Amino acid sequence: MASIVLDWLKANRIDLIISAAVILIGLILIRIIGFELKRLVKNNRIKKRGAKAIQRMLQLLILLIIFTVLLVQYLETAGFLTALITLMGTTVIGFAAMNTIGNFIAGIIIMTSKPFIKGDRIFFEGKLADIVDIEFIYTKIQLIDKTIVAVPNQELLRQSINNLGSGAEIIMRDISVTLDYSLNHLEVEETLVNAIKGYKLLSTEEDPFVTINDYHDYAVEYKLYYYIKDVMQILIINSEIRKRVLEACEAKGYKISVPLLIKDTE
């Protein structure tokens, strides 16, 4: 038995040396990565939670590379069936890691290209949300009801995100109002503009204006455009705009009982 082992060691001594070198290099890389990540955390370059996620992912990647190298190296001596089972196991592990790696890469893309940053208000899946934190695997968003949602970074990149900014930007919003054909359109436009003019939460740099958006079978559709200077107040502003338009139409005697009375066109 001992002679068989010795013969095998002699026959595979070069492969064993290569294997030991690969394992040693892998372990050294893992130690170096861990040391560098701790240094980055200490210097406040990245967060501790993000560093742990990076370390886990890179460790898994290095171990997969080591395992694959060893598998290829001993493919002949391990036997076809054993090698096939091992290869299948490696493939399964690799696919399982792809999602984590994909989210990590997506996180790097988000951090470098900056389609949004911490503090921005966005429309995500039809809902208003604020960016709370951007990590390597997940981005945390806070919905209007204060619920915190962790969204995988790949999912954010796959979807179209409407970024409203963090409050410093002026954005344009609009609502549609359908009114009877018998009304004078110039008078209607003046009424709608005057209804919201001077509202303190609107931007004073741009004036509101009205366009005729469409002709329906039952009414004319007017669109009132206005500019918001504080996106963090968007729900309050939109509600106040609807209220003022409704009150102005009632004061003028405009019949607004038709369908699509006031439709938010977000």
Question: How does this structure look, described?
Answer:
The chain is of the alpha+beta class. It contains eight helices and nine strands. The N and C termini lie far apart (79 Å). The mean pLDDT is 80. A five-stranded antiparallel sheet has the order 4-3-2-1-5. It folds into three domains: 112 residues, Helix Hairpins; 45 residues, SH3 type barrels (Roll); 94 residues, Alpha-Beta Plaits. Helices cover 53% and strands 21% of the residues.
Question: What's the gist of this structure?
Answer:
With 266 residues, the protein is of the alpha+beta class.
Q: Write down the overall mean pLDDT.
A: 80
Q: Cα-atom Rg, whole angstroms?
A: 31 Å
Helical fraction equals: 40-55%
Quote the CATH topology of the largest domain: Helix Hairpins
* Strand percent estimate: 15-25%
Shape: elongated
Number of continuous helical runs: 8
The CATH architecture name of the largest domain reads Orthogonal Bundle
Supply the CATH class of the largest domain. Answer: Mainly Alpha
Helix and strand succession?
HHHHHEEEEHEEHEEHE
Instruction: Please give the domain count.
Output: 3
Topology:
Blueprint: H1 2-11, H2 13-42, H3 48-73, H4 75-78, H5 80-113, E1 121-124, E2 127-134, E3 138-143, E4 148-152, H6 153-158, E5 162-165, E6 171-179, H7 185-196, E7 209-215, E8 220-228, H8 234-252, E9 262-264
Antiparallel strand pairs: 1-2, 1-5, 2-3, 3-4, 6-8, 6-9, 7-8
Helix pairs in contact: 2-3, 3-5, 7-8
